[in-house]
Amino acid sequence: MALQEKQKKVLLASLLLVFLLIIAINSGTLVNMLGLGKSSSTDEEVIPPTSYSDLQRREQEERFPEIQMGQLEEKSQSSDDMKRDPFTFSRAPGGDRDTQIDLAQERADEMQRKMEEQRQATEAAPPPPSDIEMKFAGYAARDDIARAVFLDDKEVIIGGEGDVINDNFVIIKIGYESIIMGYVNHEKTQEITMKGS
Q1: Are 171 and 160 in contact (CB under 8 A)?
Q2: What does the pLDDT read at residue 112?
Q3: Which of 84, 118, 153, 174 could lock 146 by a disulfide, CB 3.0 to 4.6 Å apart?
Q4: In the prediction, which pLDDT does 106 show?
């Protein structure tokens, strides 16, 4: 019985040793230790990965192609003929120089004409009138017809919507607490709120 147990232990130890040898051969450590791998004289020496980062690096090397520097040099030599000096000016694409000058002159003339029209329009327009100095004292209404009451230098003026007051002002709208007044010769309007005396 003791012999069978000893045989079992030897068998188990030999199986463990064979298992470890298989792992060592697959990982390449035993091959490198015994010098059975490729010789160091070749350019492409196979280095077995020892960590996860080595495996990732190997995958990237296999996935991405190697850049051939000779091909890059050939392309750069052929592009030397096509160099362009950014400080040298030549004809612009899309037409000859005279046509472009004519187009630019037409644009400049058009802009100058528009500026002149705007200047004449601002000179011809009357200056904006000053604010209305009258006080809105209140209103009176009868049969949906409202009349506004104004005080101007102690003078009482009464008028309805659309009436012209003092030959300069027009009553546009009469409200409960304010009135909207306009000018006879201008588009400007002004809201005047009700004030006491």
Answers
A1: yes
A2: 93
A3: 174
A4: 92
For the chain, the domains span 2-36+48-62, 135-193
Q: Within 10 Å of residue 132's Cβ, how many Cβ atoms?
A: 22
The pTM of this model reads 0.36
The residue assigned the tokens 């990982």 is 27
> By C-alpha distance, which of 159, 162, 191 is closest to 178?
191
Q: What pLDDT was estimated at residue 107?
A: 92
- Residue with token string 């991405």: 64
Task: Kindly report, residue by residue over 159-179, the tens digit of the pLDDT.
Answer: 889 898 888 889 999 888 889
Give residues with Cβ within 8 angstroms of 175, minimum separation 6: none
